[in-house]
């Protein structure tokens, strides 16, 4: 059975995982969702790479004040993470 894919061609469960990453990194993801995400990360080749890229990016962005980065720049950055 094939996994469902999104329009971008990314498996649906990878897309869902990507949507949970910021909550995971912030430590606010409920235990059940965190566990499902960690199970997905353990079996996926691509998502752990995406997680690390986002983690590093968030760490860099925290060095700047919230108002120092234009909103359109932030939007482009997050859109880039959503691409396959």
TrEMBL record:
Organism: Streptosporangium carneum
Keywords: Transcription, Transcription regulation
InterPro entries the record matches: Anti_sigma_zinc_sf, Znf_put
Domain Putative zinc-finger: 14-47
Name this polypeptide is given: Putative zinc-finger domain-containing protein
Database matches in Gene3D superfamilies: Anti-sigma factor, zinc-finger domain
